[in-house]
Amino acid sequence: MEKKDAHRINQHIRGVQEVRLVGENVETGVYKLSDALRMADEQELDLVEISPNAAPPVCKIIDYKKFVYEQKKREKALKAKSTQVTIKEIRFGPQTDEHDYEFKRKNAEKFLKEGSKLKAFVFFKGRSIIYKEQGQILLLRLAQDLEEFGKVEAMPVLEGKRMIMFIAPKKKK
């Protein structure tokens, strides 16, 4: 069927004499494997090994195809609920002029509206590290300008030759 069936079913359950049976329309308890298989056959369902590492292994009498279908459906629903966080980067120099700043601010605004996180950083080349106050002022100004679209997660921090700041998008109401 799929990638080497995730569960052992019916005659593929081997190496055990007894199994613990659980589920609907079955008296919960420990049964001989042959009895459990006969019960499943009588109900025209499958004996599925749910927990092979238990002693004795736990089995359930269910329609295996329906079980696999519902499991895939559940996994798909969980995957749909989880959100993928994207991080967009915007790079400045310590002496970025007004026009470039405005252009990058508009892009940052667009990224935050899309729901992406923003990593804004000032890159210091060579001796420009002496302008680290200017870099910090630039990043704080950006944070202030983007206040209505996002909130600062981390204040500007100097790491090597970069001063980095993170801005997360505000939740939509």
Automatic annotation (TrEMBL):
Keyword Chaperone part of the UniProt annotation: no
Record-annotated Translation initiation factor 3 C-terminal domain positions: 85-170
Keywords: Cytoplasm, Initiation factor, Protein biosynthesis
Subcellular location as annotated: Cytoplasm
Location (main, coarse): cytoplasm
Domain Translation initiation factor 3 N-terminal as annotated: residue spans: 9-77
Pfam families (UniProt xref): IF3_C, IF3_N
Gene3D superfamilies assigned: Translation initiation factor 3 (IF-3), C-terminal domain, Translation initiation factor 3 (IF-3), N-terminal domain
GO molecular function, one term: translation initiation factor activity
GO cellular component, one term: cytosol
Record-linked InterPro entries: T_IF-3_C_sf, T_IF-3_N_sf, Translation_initiation_fac_3, Translation_initiation_fac_3_C, Translation_initiation_fac_3_N
Biological process, per Gene Ontology: ribosome disassembly
Subunit-level organization: Monomer.
Family assignment from sequence similarity: Belongs to the IF-3 family.
Function: IF-3 binds to the 30S ribosomal subunit and shifts the equilibrium between 70S ribosomes and their 50S and 30S subunits in favor of the free subunits, thus enhancing the availability of 30S subunits on which protein synthesis initiation begins.
Protein name, entry field: Translation initiation factor IF-3
Native source species: Flavobacterium caeni
Organism taxonomic ancestry: Bacteria, Pseudomonadati, Bacteroidota, Flavobacteriia, Flavobacteriales
